[in-house]
Specification:
Shape of chain B: globular
Largest interface: B-C, 53 and 44 residues
Radius of gyration of chain A: 23 Å
Number of helices of chain A: 12
CATH architecture of chain A: Orthogonal Bundle
Distance between the termini of chain B: 33 Å
Helix content of chain A: over 70%
Chains: A mainly alpha (291), B alpha/beta (336), C alpha/beta (342)
Order of helices and strands of chain B: EEEHEEHEHHHHHEHEHEEHHHEEH
CATH class of chain A: Mainly Alpha
Oligomer: heterotrimer
CATH topology of chain A: MetI-like fold
CATH topology of the largest domain in chain B: Rossmann fold
Number of domains of chain A: 1
Number of strands of chain B: 12
Chain lengths: 291, 336, 342
């Protein structure tokens, strides 16, 4: 009995081993902490932001960073810190929703293409390949231009642009898992396609999909900044890191902080999620996960 | 008795990570003489492969190695990669289970054999090629003059393993380590590879360390056998003696669990329990938890690897048959 | 209960069409596994024995011939139509680490067939799982573990428990002991033998391990390059192999006894296994057969039934069972006796 209890403990330790491995990866942890800061700032923007981000104050335009305005003010006297916080909120919103959209559409298509093969696969793969022929940002800009400028449309455009990558990853995982013995065993058990796909293939593909998600979020953040910068995303006076960078262009010499801080925010957010994603990839890599 | 060509003394290998230490090999010793085939036998995780990798200096830097490995006059333990580079392939060579992954797919087999010759013996391109053809002939590859220009993927598994052997013996090494050389092959192909190893030993006097889990292969080719269990040596004896009168309970269990032709259709003997974890190095017999003969002594102190008692119960005069056991089977018991 | 055999393969073909041509992995395999009978299917890699096994349980689609299970023709049945019938046949895979879903607990794995066939669920399923685990020598507590927490032998026991949970009439075991250590092999073979005796399922035991098949099987079929070359009751096959390939196979496997092994003669086959893309004309074995004559190179030998009821496909074996001795062929054998160096 004691040996049983002991093995039980050892087993639990093995399962938490992945978390521990992640915790030991300093870069990934740094990324994770920054990512959490961004998520919290986005969630609690009204509490974190010291001022109303849209409220102009013409008595205090282009103020340099200081005690009352930590990151300075812009050409309309709006508090930069508040605008960065609200901008991060828009970034996170697009980042998360676009990835969710890409997964909701891409995962089922990838599963179908990988599992059934033949005609379904040909159609899905051809469309995917065609979309992948365009660079991600070019595709997003094109779609946003067609859909019209708004935060929602930017989210949709970015989400659609990410679908092919999600399909590709899901399809590859499905193809790999389709030939693993335990999937054959599920068929032999009398399992139908639903059982095989959703009970055996999808759960075992989650590692790869999780990594894909952490790569998709920073890409979407950059996408949002670009679309807003080009006027295809968030519309002024609503704050967005892209909009801020766009309006900072005219004031680079007198007020460089207008460009520096939103720029740093974009870099920090994308870097944070990429580092976290790399760390997750190392830990969740299917080859490393067999243990 | 002549000097051994390879002498391993108290070789231990452990792998350390932040969370645990795995004692993969725990004080293994053996001698290997010219023209001799020593089989190292055991189940997965017993340390038989790690022992040989340590001898070859092929373990990653995370491995902590102690003990002594003498190849002729040279001490190899602690030698750096540069020193090993001079002797690997020349004085000691190794072949592996999977011949495909050990061969470079974009080079002809002639080039790959020639490379070793040119590095260690300074042969010219032409000489190396001529020698490669001879070597292919030596390992029983038909039409060697044509085969020398072929690529690994054009050969079958058995032929690839022959090529690996040709590369390994190109510089006529004193010692050849063969790590499960026939495990990935079919029995009819295995038979051919064993023939080749046999002829190398006879024609070149190569000493061979054969790592295997297949007791049929051991019976076929080995002169002496070293049985390992959980990183430790448990028994060593000349092959006939080991199969006829195994003294260690683990060896007996292993031999009786092996199916042989004409095995009666009643229950096969099993060894109860599981192989222990290698995380600890207990001062005890590691087989004790699975052993019917175990008593308090076995769980309280580690048995030495000593000569087994002879028919009178006295310690054996020559130490050719050793076992690490507090209560080895007597000769009378093994006869029954 | 019908009296039809558990498995009946008639002229089974599985051809894989590829860029380089058609691979004839199984080419006209006729084989019957009676109720409660253990039939060993023996062959080397590339013989097509695993393909036959996968076709028998319809994890692979035969391209010709018929597969009957319990008398029902399942050859062309759709996957959906086949699902309810799957409780009559199951299989055990070679590699116990890849045949169990790593994300499921042992209990979920063993219970899955019960749930899918609507045999038991909830508390009843749990009780049945505990019972099954007991039958394969595991404890009820193992149900809460994940496969990676168990040893290879234990995992193979789980695979067996899963396969037998629905009480199939046919079990296909594809090299169930090949990935296991010697001492663990013995215990898994014991388990299979015990369960087979108790439950009386028919078993197609696919292996390259002659000793294991001799221990377990009532009857043995030997495959070479996609075809069965010899079929006989186990004791007869081992005592008196008729086909030169069977003779070579039996002689090549070393016996774990140095004294016996030294006196044995082994038939070393020349050449390589021909590509299944282009099997040789005539007898498929003639390129490596030490006894081949002209007739073997041109005329395909049929799988004939000899007087005693054994089957063999070789021109050189007479109808009364008189067979040539491949070991007696000139210059093909090498005695295993060594020049003693000790």
């Amino acid at each position: 009995m004691t040996t049983l209890a002991l093995t039980g403990i050892r087993a639990r330790a093995a399962r938490s081993g992945k978390l521990r491995a992640l915790r030991k990866n300093k870069l990934a942890m740094t990324g994770g902490v920054i990512a959490v800061v961004f998520v919290l700032a986005a969630l609690f923007a009204p509490l974190v932001a010291p001022y109303d981000p849209a409220q102009p104050n013409f008595d205090n335009v282009l103020a340099a960073p200081g005690w009352s305005h930590w990151l300075g003010t812009d050409d309309l006297g709006r508090d930069q810190l508040s605008r960065v916080v609200y901008g991060a909120r828009a970034s996170m919103q697009v980042g998360v929703l676009a990835v969710v959209l890409a997964f909701v559409v891409g995962v089922p298509l990838g599963l179908l293409a990988g599992y059934y093969g033949k005609f379904t696969d040909s159609v899905v793969s051809r469309v995917t390949d065609t979309m992948l022929a365009f660079p991600f940002l070019v595709l997003a800009v094109g779609l946003a231009a067609v859909l019209g400028p708004s935060l929602t449309n930017a989210t949709i455009a970015i989400g659609i642009s990410q679908i092919p990558a999600v399909i590709r990853i899901t399809r590859a995982e499905t193809l790999r898992l389709k030939h693993v013995d335990y999937v054959a065993a599920a068929v032999a058990n009398g399992g139908g396609d639903g059982t095989v796909l959703f009970r055996h293939i999808l759960p075992n593909a989650t590692s790869a999909l999780t990594v894909q998600a952490t790569v998709g979020i920073p890409a979407a953040i950059i996408g949002e900044a670009l679309l807003s910068f080009l006027g295809l995303g968030v519309q002024p006076p609503e704050p967005s890191l892209g909009v801020m960078l766009s309006s900072a262009q005219s004031f680079l010499a007198p007020a460089p902080w207008m460009a520096v801080f939103p720029g740093l925010a974009v870099v920090a957010a994308t870097l944070a999620f990429n580092l976290l994603g790399d760390g997750l990839r190392d830990v969740l890599d299917p080859r490393g996960a067999t243990r | 008795m002549t000097e051994p060509v390879l002498s391993v003394r108290d070789l231990s290998v452990s792998f350390r990570s932040d969370t645990r230490t795995v004692h993969a090999v725990d004080h293994v010793s053996y001698d290997l003489h010219a023209g001799e085939v020593l089989a190292v036998v055991g189940e997965s995780g017993c340390g038989k492969s790690v022992t040989s990798m340590a001898v070859m200096g092929l373990l990653p830097p995370t491995a902590h190695i102690t003990g002594s490995v003498r190849l002729g006059e040279r001490e190899l333990a602690g030698a750096d990669d540069k020193a090993y580079g001079k002797i690997r392939g020349k004085d000691i060579a190794m072949i592996f289970q999977e011949p495909m992954t050990s061969l470079n797919p974009v080079l002809t087999i002639g080039r790959q054999i020639g490379e070793v010759l040119r590095r260690h013996q300074g042969l010219s391109k032409k000489e190396a090629r001529a020698r490669a053809v001879e070597l292919l002939d030596l390992v029983g590859i038909p039409a060697p003059a044509q085969r020398v220009d072929e690529y690994p993927h054009q050969l079958s598994g058995g032929m690839r393993q022959r090529v690996m052997i040709a590369i390994a013996v190109a510089c006529d090494p004193a010692v050849l380590i063969a790590d499960e050389p026939t495990t990935a092959l079919d029995v009819t192909v295995q038979a051919g590879i064993l023939e080749v190893l046999q002829s190398l030993r006879e024609r070149l006097g190569t000493a061979i360390v054969l790592i295997t889990h297949d007791l049929g292969v051991v019976a076929d080719i080995a002169d002496r056998v070293l049985v390992m269990y959980a990183g430790r040596p448990v028994e060593q004896a000349p092959v006939d003696e080991l199969f006829a009168t195994p003294r260690h309970p683990y060896t007996r269990g292993l031999l009786s669990a092996v199916l042989r032709p004409g095995t009666p259709k009643d229950r096969l003997p099993e060894i109860p329990g599981l192989v222990p974890s290698l995380d600890t190095q207990p001062d005890a017999c590691t087989f004790a938890p699975r052993c019917a003969r175990a008593d308090d002594t076995c769980t309280a102190s580690r048995p030495g690897f000593r000569a087994v008692p002879d028919e009178n119960g006295a310690a054996g005069a020559d130490a050719t048959h050793r076992a690490a056991c507090w209560h080895p089977h007597t000769l009378q018991e093994t006869a029954s | 209960m019908s009296t039809a055999p558990a498995l009946e393969l008639t002229g089974l073909e599985r051809h894989f069409a590829g860029a380089g041509g058609t691979v004839r992995a199984a080419d006209g395999v006729t084989l019957t596994v009676g109720r409660g009978e253990v039939v060993g299917l023996v062959g080397e890699s590339g013989s097509g024995k695993s393909t036959v096994g996968r076709c028998a349980v319809r994890l692979d689609e035969p391209t010709g011939g018929t597969v009957r299970i319990n008398g029902t023709d399942v050859t062309t049945m759709s996957r959906r139509a086949l699902r309810p019938l799957r409780k009559d046949f199951h299989l055990v895979f070679q590699d116990p680490s890849s045949s169990l879903d790593p994300r499921m607990t042992v209990g979920e794995i063993v219970a899955e067939p019960l749930k899918l066939h609507g045999i038991a669920k909830g508390e009843a399923a749990r009780a049945r799982v505990a019972e099954l685990l007991g039958q394969v020598g595991l404890r009820p507590e193992h149900a809460d573990r994940h496969p990676h927490e168990l040893s290879g032998g234990q995992r193979q026991r789980i695979s067996i428990a899963r396969a037998l949970s629905v009480d199939p009439a046919l079990l296909v075991a594809d090299e169930p002991t090949s990935a296991l250590d010697v001492s663990v092999q013995a215990s898994v073979l014991n388990l299979l033998a015990d369960l087979q005796r108790d439950r009386g399922f028919g078993c197609l035991f696919i292996t390259h391990d002659l000793a294991a098949v001799e221990y377990l099987a009532d009857r043995i079929a030997v495959m070479y390059l996609g075809q069965i070359v010899e079929q006989a009751p186990t004791s007869e096959l081992f005592a008196d192999p008729k086909h030169p390939y069977t003779q070579a196979l039996l002689s090549a496997a070393p016996v774990p006894d140095p004294v016996t092994q030294r006196t044995r003669e082994r038939i070393v086959l020349s050449g390589e296994l021909p590509s299944p893309l282009a099997p040789p004309p005539g007898c498929r074995f003639h390129t490596r057969c030490p006894l081949a004559v002209d007739r073997c190179r041109t005329e395909v030998p049929a799988l004939r039934t000899l007087d005693g009821g054994r089957e063999v496909s070789c021109h050189l074996v007479a109808d009364d069972g008189t067979a040539p001795d491949a070991a007696a062929a000139p210059s093909r054998t090498i005695p295993t006796t060594r020049t003693a160096t000790r």
